[in-house]
Give the backbone structure.
Amino acid sequence: MNNIDVLKQDIIGTVHAANDMDSLEQVRVSALGKKGQITGMMQSLGKMDPDQRREMGQALNKLKNEIAGEIDNRVQILKSEEMKKKLAADKIDVTLPIRPELKGSIHPLSHTFEELFTIFTDMGFDIAEGPDIEDEFYNFTALNFPPEHPARQMHDTFYLPDDNLKEGDASKKLLRTHTSTVQVHVMQNQEPPIRIIIPGRTYRSDYDATHTPMFHQLEGLVIDKKTNLSHLKGCLTDFLSSYFEIDDLPVRFRPHYFPFTEPSAEVDIGCTKDKNNFKIGAGDNWMEILGCGMIHPNVLKNCGIDPDVYQGFAFGMGVERIAMLKYGIPDLRTFFETDLRWLRHYGFRSLEQPNSVMK
Ligand code: DAH
């Protein structure tokens, strides 16, 4: 074995033995740093004759790249071990009994879901659910998002790591960006008539007072032979006045674009909004509240339903958003901070009934 091989084995041994980032950095500095072993040997090249210099120079360069590669691999391994340790340390045992001194309350999100379930099941909707991990087909393609369409990018998608697949491949796995994915599963598996709501978690890479990387949506899907736009308008107008508990709530359907519906609309509700005052109900302002439309014939086709026989409507809304509006909660991030003071303030008592205001 020549000197370079001995040195290589020696350094690789220390790379593998480094058990944290600090010691790995020390190994890197002592091998590749300004005063490192390999750097030192490179500096001595000048004293060699040309043939020897060329040969040694190439060997040292190769060694340098190999060591850098080994260090990169070790960084990845240490990072993933660190993450595993952190996840294990963060684990919460949800089977532990409740501590009696902590008076529990119902989270405003759970309360809002109960309200939504009550209103929609009163209208004859069933509840359907689907997986949080989906692929491009269910999240985009089946829902008529053209390949390369900017709407795909606008979803700030979290993709699952898989070196063999790239964004745009139908089987590329991702965290669903909307609950519309479950429309596809339901249509694939159920003959119309269909009348369902779909509650669930959704994920987008975004974080500020009105966005969190995980949030909740409620989706609706109605398909039958004669379902039409006036059914959509009636259903959503009734839902909104019921949810906000305002009989004559002004509701406006404003044309919009979604790939999976045609025509599509955003729905606004009336409100009063000025510097010191925000109130839902008749007023001189509008507030956007949900998206909806008549299901695009391509979506029906993609999911195995004949668009010449069936038609329908769909809608989707952010559940935290409608909870914030109804209960005056200013910042979405606080929903997930498990701050007891916040929970005591915004939480509901366990026997408080959700409103069922279908009159
Ligand atoms: N999926 C849409 C989103 O996340 C929301 C939506 C809009 C759902 C219109 C629908 C719909 O079903 O018809 O932004």
